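Hey team,

Filing this mostly as a record. A colleague (T.K.) asked me to run one chain through the structure pipeline before their review meeting, and I want the input and output archived in the tracker in case anyone asks later how it was produced. No errors, nothing strange. Just documentation.

Input sequence:
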Amino acid sequence: MQTLPLGSQDFETLRQRDALYVDKTEYVLDIIRQPTYMFFSRPRRMGKSLLCSTLKCVYEGRQGLFEGLYIYDKIDWEAIQCPVIHIDFSRVDTKNLEMGLQLHMELLAKKFQVELKRDYEGNAIFQILLETLSQNGKKVVVIIDEYDKALNDYIDDKEKFEKQREILRNFYGILKPYDSKLEKVFLTGVSKFGKVSIFSQLNNITDYSTYETYSTMCGYTQTELEHYFADYIMDTTQKLEISKEILLQEMKRFYNGYSYDGVTTVYNPYSVLNFFKLQDFRNYWYDTGTPNILVKGLQEQKIQPFELEKIQIQDQFLDAADIDNMSVISLLYQTGYLTIKAKIRKKLRFMVRLGFPNAEVKEAFSQYILSHYIQKGIDKTSVKYSSPMRDALENKDFPAIQQIVQAVYASIVYQLHERKSKDSTQTKDEIEKAIDAESELMRKEMFYHSLFHVLMNATGFRTESEILTNLGRIDMAVETDETLYLFEFKVNESAEIAFDQIMNKGYAEKYQTTDYEIFAVGINFSTEIRNIEALTYRQLK
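Output structure:
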């Protein structure tokens, strides 16, 4: 089997080592034929850096590296050869961005043997490189990878963010006077905030991120997965002692689902490669570096976690143009926590329905939200709550389910249970009197429901809230491999009333033809004890 290309996003290195490479050069050929300025965004670990490296090698005329690939005999390799300035911001120190840029540009000057007679700032070296490399009649190619890393690193620090943005604006502004000497400017990044203001002088840059032509340029399609990883698929089925059909089904559920046109989907390459290396279904893409701004944004914009799987917005609002006018939904989409599930045409406009791309992201993001609520690390949250809850659901252990839920709600800080008042001089009683009792009860039910949903999502099981039926709306359904749980929630009423609602409205009828064991579960929450007061259940099938 070919070596898995883990730990390297350098095209030359992969080809020289005969590492596995999923051929994306048909897209590279199309990039070459497009206008000069191109912008392309995708979440992290989706293959943008390898794409940039591949494009660089093409423009350097390295034909030998492309033997056996689509592009090999499709271009004039001598004619296409150009000097390439490749700037990778993952290798630039963003703590002191000006110094980091200067050191990076000095390394590029050394590579091109451009002598610097005195100390220059990074911007000046960039300008000298453009001048020098274009003197022999050859146009210059500029490839900038992770253009926004210096901004993403400080998204929680507005003052530092603005400083970084000003430095980048001046740096990228150097390109404008050299239009006639540039063959291609190709930029990648994660987020689109700041794109307008940073590239304000580059008014002819085109964003290709949502073009259907490029919907599968980064990530692996199902066909690519089964073709290029055929040997690894066979080896993994033997190791896990499962059929190929089941393996592909579970891989798709865990790691596929990223979509940028609402039709075609791709796998996260990083997750796929790590899965085949360890042959274990676990979270690979996710890490603990998720910005707090995402969870804070959900709270400030009053978006419940279970609503993230059913959001519909106009497609134009997926682009957040600036940190001062940023939607948490667009940021969740750009960073890969949400993806396009479908495009819906309404008259002359397109709406997009968003949701988590797959089980890996859904489970991991829920773990993060849960750890934020209970103010414990993700590892502790998993060990103490989500993993035991998974076991309890698999074992149909209802006393354990109730005990874990009570432990979770007991861990929530008091302030999250109560509505914050703008007037700090008001007493709790005065606040309570000022709020309509019915709407307040609904708000608290929503809070308990949301937290319960997050806990269930964090188990990795299929969880869905507010499911419409012909007679009403099921609060929540949770599916394990063998069991379906139907939950109904009440606040300050009784678990029996919640249970009776499931029975009286026939919520289980739509699931009768499935192979699941079905349990109806009524839960009552008490605002007095701020916790689950009672749970009642019955097996229906």
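Quick notes for T.K.: Residues 437-457 form the longest helix (21 residues). Residues 375-539 form one domain.
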